Amino acid sequence: MKKLVCVVICLTIVSKLFVVSAYNISAKASVVIDGFTGEILYSQNADKKLPMASTTKIMTALLLCELAGDLSHEIVTTYEMVTVEGSSMGLQVGDTVSYHDLLYGMMLASGNDAANTTAIALAGSVGKFVDIMNERAKQMGLKSTNFATPSGLDADDHYTTAYELALIAKTALSNDEFAKAAASQSARLCYGNPPYNRTLTNHNKLLKMYDDVVGVKTGFTKKSGRCLVSASKKDGKFVIAVTLNDGNDWQDHRTLLDLGLSLINEQCLSPKENKKIINTTANSVIEVEIPSAHMYIPKNTKVDYIIKIPRVLYAPINKGDQIGTIEYINKQNTLCKLPIVSSQYVEAKHNNFILFLQLFKVILSKF
C-alpha cells in the first residue's frame, strides 16, 4: 500500500512538472483570458508593469472607433500629424485620408503616423488625446496602465501589464469596426494627394498561420522587446493572449491560445425559475418560459441573470411575441441576452375596472 501511495505521489509530481515545462513561455510577462468573461486562464508575471510598444494602438484604434462617428469622414494631414519616427502607413503632409483608412493604417501597418494623425484629428493635440486614453483606461477599471503616446513609442511613464492589456483588447474586440480591422490580413485603401489606391498587409503573421486567429496587434521597440496580443475564436470559444518582451512570440501564442481553448467547456446557463406567470389586460394570465443559454466559458464561472418582463402585458398578444428579455452576466460582462416570448395568443378583452386594479397592485408593490 505504501509503495502504491509513493507511486501515485511521484506520478503527480512528474505530471505537474510536465505541465509547467510544456507551457514554458519565453516572455517576461504573459496571460490568457477568456474573451467573454475576462477570467484568467493562465498567467506569468501578468501584473508586472512593462512597456507595450505598438500594442498601444489597440487603445488608440478603439477610441477612433468610439469617437470618430462616420469612419468615411476625411481629413487633410498636417506636418504635425505625420512627423513622427518609426513605422508608417506612408502619410505625407497634405494627404487626404479617411478615419477608416487611419484605423487600418494603425492595425495593419502599425503606422505611428496614423496614430498621431488620429490623436490630433480627434483631440486637437497628442497631449489631449493621451489624456482621453488614460481616462478611458480608468473607465475600464485599469490601475496599472498609463499612456504617454498614442503610438507606443518609448516613454518613461508609458506602461501596462499583460493582464490589463488583455482587458483592453477584450473591450476593443467588442467593437465591430475594430474587430473587423484586427482580423484583416490585408486591406485595399485609398489616400494621398491626390488619393490613390494602395494595399496594406497586416504585420500579425498569426492571421495567416492559424485559421482560428482573429487578431489583434504586434509591437516592438528596443526597450519593450517583442510584444504581441492575439485572439482566437473556435467552436464557440473565445480567448485572448498577451505576451510582453517575448523573443519567441509566434510559437508562444499558438501554445497559449491552444491552452486557453482547452480550458473552456460548454456550460448551461439557466435561471432558478424557468417559468413566470404574467397578468394581462384581458383579465387573464399567461405562463412564459425563461430560456436557458449554452455558452463556452471557463468552468465555475459565476453567472448572474436579470429578467425584464412588464408586470402587466397589454392584449392582444400573439404567440411568439417578444414580451421581455433575460440577460446572463458575469460581473459587468454581458455574456448573452435572450428574448422571452409568449407561448400563447391572448385576445384583447379590456375591462377598465380590472385594468385599474392591476395597475393599482403594481403601484402598491413598489412601496
Explain the overall architecture.
- With 367 residues, the chain is an alpha+beta fold.
- It folds into 2 domains: 27-262, 3-Layer(aba) Sandwich (Beta-lactamase), CATH 3.40.710.10; 269-365, D-Ala-D-Ala carboxypeptidase, C-terminal domain (Peptidoglycan synthesis regulatory factor (PBP3), Domain 2).
- Helix content is 33%, strand content 29%.
- The protein has 11 helices and 17 strands.
- The chain has a 5-stranded antiparallel β-sheet with strand order 2-1-9-8-7, with helices on both faces. Strands 12-11-15 form a 3-stranded mixed β-sheet. Strands 14-16-17 form a 3-stranded antiparallel β-sheet, with no helix packed on it.
- Helix 2 (57-67) runs antiparallel to helix 4 (99-107).
- The longest helix has 21 residues, at 2-22.
- The radius of gyration is 26 Å and the shape is globular.
- The protein starts with a helix and ends with a helix.
- Mean pLDDT is 90; it is low at 5-22.
Can you describe this structure in just a few lines?
The protein has 367 residues and is α+β, with helices and mostly antiparallel strands. It has eleven helices and 17 strands.
